[in-house]
Amino acid sequence: GAFLGPYLYGLYSTRVSVVSVWVSFVFGVGTMLLNMFFRSSFPIWLQSPINCGGFVMLASLALVPLVSLITKPPEKQYVNGVFACYDRRVTVTVTDSIGNQQQTDD
């Protein structure tokens, strides 16, 4: 659950900061460890590991953009290099259901 937010936002946003990923990781893992060892201290709806894991996943979706807004974004040159793979055109051969090969430019 700690990586849901960083993963999803990291795929589509160029603004996700390293600090926000670490905050999400520490919050998620820390919350789950506390839940394992001090379960009775949590609210009744978070005492179940499944509910707590779901909560951590949802929290990571909120934490990553909020922390990214108040921290330094990654360098533009680095981000452009990472996202450059989306600019490549790839041509593949497709085989239809009866075994005939077709060329596609998608």
Blueprint (SSEs and pairs):
Blueprint: H1 4-12, H2 18-37, H3 49-70, H4 76-83, E1 92-95, E2 101-104
Antiparallel strand pairs: 1-2
Helix pairs in contact: 1-3, 2-3
| Number of distinct beta strands | 2
Give unreliable regions as ranges: none
Q: Given the C-alpha coordinates, what overall shape results? A: flat
- Portion of residues in beta strands equals 5-15%
Helix content: 55-70%
Calculate Rg over CA atoms. 20 Å
Number of helices: 4
List the strand order in the largest sheet: 1-2
Sheet with the most strands? 2 strands, antiparallel
Average pLDDT across residues? 88
Instruction: Provide the succession of SSEs.
Output: HHHHEE
Terminal CA distance: 34 Å
Class by alpha and beta content: mainly alpha
How would you describe the overall organization of this protein?
The protein is mainly alpha-helical and 106 residues long. It is 56% helix and 8% strand. It contains four helices and two strands. It has helices at residues 4-12, 18-37, 49-70, 76-83, and strands at 92-95, 101-104. A two-stranded antiparallel sheet has the order 1-2. Strand 1 and strand 2 (101-104) form a beta hairpin. Helix 2 runs antiparallel to helix 3 (49-70). The relative contact order is 0.17.
